[in-house]
Amino acid sequence: MKITATKIYVISGLGVDQRVFSKIDFGSLDITYLDWITPSLNEPLSIYAKRISAKITAAQPILIGLSFGGMLAMEIAKIITVQRVILLASAKGRYELPVLYRLAGRLKLNVFVPNSLLKTHSFLSDYFFGIGCKEDSLLLKQILKDTDPIFMAWAIHQILQWKNNSVPDNLIHVHGSSDRIIPIKNVKPNFIIKGAGHFMTVTHAQEVEKLLREICS
Length: 217
Prior knowledge:
Layout: E1 7-11, E2 30-33, H1 45-53, E3 62-66, H2 68-76, E4 84-88, H3 99-107, H4 115-118, H5 123-129, H6 134-146, H7 149-161, E5 171-176, E6 191-193, H8 200-203, H9 205-216
Parallel strand pairs: 1-2, 1-3, 3-4, 4-5, 5-6
Helix pairs in contact: 1-2, 3-7
């Protein structure tokens, strides 16, 4: 009898596409990238997750979520049965996010930030994403340029308002020791990528690739 490999759905961060996984070779793993869909006006993440979960056709898949994609994966896991959730540079709940984020969400400070500013690339962007080479900096710049500003503003609002406290037993959390966007001091990961920042699927692709192959095989 032929054994069917587990289907794996990969969710990128903050509306970006699969370019953030371009340096990772998933080998023979059965991968499908779950593309973002346009959110409705003021749509809560829980409702958005229900809509996007309709695109998942395989039974009991593995979900891999990067950054905001990990938060979405957590919400999807409340709707459908999954074999496992793998978080990359993400958070399991609101208390793994910095206090500043929670305060900004409570005060709704994000509404005062122009959408155009969210897409601006600078040396500060590279610093917070943990980028140290020109090639990776150019990739981040292009990703920010291509990201829909309305989607980005919606996603940031969802992050700041996220109040999840439910963590599934079948969850694995991989985090960079030098993540400046979601600092590791707030996080309790299963695996730590030493020296990696928030852009670790690009800057530390080999380490992430090796770990994902081991976890998913």
